[in-house]
């Protein structure tokens, strides 16, 4: 399952908080994708999730970031 969260127009820490809330709800193998136009969000999410059992991938196109967090444990 992949849950998408549209955070376009929202600034930090709102996207990070939404990601943390949804991360607690997903299961092993599931992922969430945060869509944002706020450039610092990707680094904030990478930092916050760095010690958790997950992989964080970031793609940027035309000023829109898609940050995917895949839970693996």
Keywords:
transferase activity; four-stranded mixed β-sheet; TusA-related sulfurtransferase; 73 residues; Translation Initiation Factor IF3; 29% helix; alpha+beta; transferase; TusA-like_sf
How does this model look, in words?
Belongs to the sulfur carrier protein TusA family. It is built from two helices and four strands. Strands 1-2-4-3 form a four-stranded mixed beta sheet, with helices on one face. It is α+β, with helices and mostly antiparallel strands and 73 residues long. Helices cover 29% and strands 37% of the residues. The longest helix is centred in the first third of the chain and has 12 residues, at 14-25. It has one domain (2-71): Translation Initiation Factor IF3, CATH 3.30.110.
Task: Set down the secondary structure blueprint.
Layout lengths: L1 E5 L7 H12 L5 E6 L4 H9 L4 E8 L2 E8 L2
Parallel strand pairs: 1-2
Antiparallel strand pairs: 2-4, 3-4
- Secondary-structure element series: EHEHEE
Largest sheet, order of strands side by side?
1-2-4-3
Q: Assign the CATH architecture.
A: 2-Layer Sandwich
The major pleated sheet works out as: 4 strands, mixed
CATH fold name: Translation Initiation Factor IF3
Structurally, how many domains make up the residues?
Answer: 1
The CATH H-level superfamily is TusA-like domain
Helicity level, as a percent range? 25-40%
Shape from CA axes? globular
- Overall structural class, as computed from helix and strand content, comes to alpha+beta
- Identify low-pLDDT runs: none
The total beta strand count reads 4
How widely separated are the two ends? 15 Å
The top-level CATH class is: Alpha Beta
Query: What does the average pLDDT come to?
Result: 97
- What's the Cα radius of gyration? 11 Å
């Amino acid at each position: 399952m992949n849950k998408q969260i549209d955070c376009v127009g929202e600034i930090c820490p709102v996207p990070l908080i939404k990601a943390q809330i949804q991360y607690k709800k997903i299961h092993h193998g599931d992922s969430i994708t945060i869509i944002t136009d706020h450039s610092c969000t990707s680094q904030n999410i990478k930092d916050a999730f760095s010690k958790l059992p997950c992989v964080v991938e970031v793609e940027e196109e035309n000023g829109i970031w898609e940050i995917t967090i895949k839970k693996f444990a």
